[in-house]
Amino acid sequence: MTETLRGCWELLRMSWRQHPAKLILALLLKTAEAAALPLAAPALGALTDAAVAREPAAAARAAATAAVLAMAALTLGHFAHVAYFELGEQNLLAKDRELIELVTGSAGLAHQERPEYADRMQVLRQELRRTGSSSMEALLSALGTAVAVTITAVLLARLNPWLLLLPLAAVPPLLLGRAAEARLARARESAAQVSRQAQHLFDLAIDPEAGKELRVGDLSAEIRTRHAGLWRDGTSILFSAEVRAAALRVAGQAVFAVGFGAATLLVVREAAAGRRTIGDAVLVIALAAQVNQQVAVAVSLLRELQRVARTLADFRWMRAVYAGQAPPPPDAAVPDRIRHGIRLRDVSFEYPWTGRPTLDGVDLFLPAGATVAVVGENGAGKTTLVKLLCRFYEPTRGRVELDGVDVVRFPLEDWRARTSAAFQDFLRPEFTARTVVGVGDLPLADSTDAVTAALHRAGTQDVVDNLEHGLDTALGASLPDGRQLSGGQWQKLALGRGMMRTAPLLLVLDEPTAALDAEAEFELFQGYAANAARVAEQTGGITVLVSHRFSTVRMADLIIVLADGRVAEVGSHDDLIARGGPYAELYQLQAAGYR
Ligand SMILES: Nc1ncnc2c1ncn2[C@@H]1O[C@H](COP(=O)(O)OP(=O)(O)OP(=O)(O)O)[C@@H](O)[C@H]1O
């Protein structure tokens, strides 16, 4: 209950911040709407008594009052909706923005990659969409219902205090409703994991890129079967929880039904004995019927508010998680240039949810100005190494030092501002080509000169040359007349994006050319090597390149061979070939493939 009240309070405060006048108007209209119906009951009672006493003037007045109140009950809600609808939408937008800020603003990637966070995030996203403006409706209706219940209770108590037990009969449905909601929430969380998998398969099935491979491998039927299976599993978890929750709610309503029967009997007997008027009996029957409805509404509103409160509580949980991920306060400035290099000292790293190290006791020195290639089999830990350099994660043990200073001591945003990167799983933001590239250095995002220069440095200007409106061409299906690009073309733009910053201390290229052919990759890297040499002269910047293509790798000043999260070999191409170790073996193997 405390969580629900806290959620309601938070919602009111949020709406107050959006537009106080609209909130007050909506509150007044919703309260008047809710009060109108119970107030119509005494008017009906008076109408009955006036009719029995054959007093047409009094009967007409009572009928007019009842009609006005009925009209208010039927119409005021619509006016209130106009006032609170916008508040609900603005609240939703505020929460969407906060969610994006939380997810993208935190230092690391753990919250996006960790499975249980992903599940909770999935529930949060679904609930946000669902509750949107309906959360405001629930809150205002709940306040209105509270007013209606109070009026009803006062009117009943004036006739016979025993009748007050009628609203009390509403307590069991409320408690049982709450138990039902808790059960449903648990089921939703367990179903979220299954539906996340099902959603992934669905996305895969309709993804135009995946379409080719799905057809070639004749995988479509398999995906449909698996998707349907997962969907059934998720539905069956939710179904059994819904059945149990419904049973709890029905039990609660049954208790109320007994109370309603007793109240009606009590007043009808008093009217028959002449202690009450017929109008009083009509009033009680009208009110008792409303109490029934009030309880049903209160229970469903409470359910809705509990759901809203849970969503808001999830937000608080997420804020706390992310606050816990904040790096320690910085106490060193990122230098203008690297004098010696980056040293990894006994670095180990374990993804917190896996229970086994991905990198284990890595000692490395990346000299200032060097181009460093990282090679190794799939899963050897290359990308993880790069993630540590970019500070998406902190090492579990050991340190990454730049000229002897632990990089965690630098302000994270300053470190990121001096890092450029292009990844294999690159972003495909649907904007104009200029912005797609320009966002690699936000202050220059709209600068044609900066974007063109970046594409030249990346050696990928040809993509834009072939676009009808050059840098002004809209890209992607979400934009009107948006051009569809191939995977390789998107990747070339991502490479340009990675080149936007002109003086990075660290340039990371994590298989950014996987969608290009070996020859194109070779040419691009020749350009990079020249560019890296220029950057190195200015800043001592280090280029780290992850690639499976040895024809490219051999250009690097230093080659690191990783195997099972450990450094297997380090040296120049010539050193490693002369040593005849794993690198030489893999190199000969690939070279033979090209002969
Ligand atoms: N987000 C993650 N959560 C849990 N384990 C992960 C995560 N990312 C990577 N791993 C595991 O860490 C190991 C190293 O992965 P990493 O991506 O660093 O390898 P890689 O050498 O870059 O591989 P590839 O050549 O296939 O890109 C793998 O066993 C992988 O399963």
TrEMBL record:
Keywords: ATP-binding, Membrane, Nucleotide-binding, Transmembrane, Transmembrane helix. Signal peptide: none annotated. It is found in: Cell membrane. Pfam families: ABC_tran. One of its GO terms (molecular function) is ATP binding. It is a multi-pass membrane protein. It comes from Dactylosporangium vinaceum. The lineage of its organism: Bacteria, Bacillati, Actinomycetota, Actinomycetes, Micromonosporales. Residues 121-307 form the ABC transmembrane type-1 domain. This is ATP-binding cassette domain-containing protein. The chain crosses the membrane at residues 58-85, 138-156. Its main location: membrane. It comes from the Bacteria. InterPro entries: AAA+_ATPase (IPR003593), ABC1_TM_dom (IPR011527), ABC1_TM_sf (IPR036640), ABC_transporter-like_ATP-bd (IPR003439), ABC_transporter-like_CS (IPR017871), P-loop_NTPase (IPR027417), Type_1_exporter (IPR039421). Residues 342-589 form the ABC transporter domain.
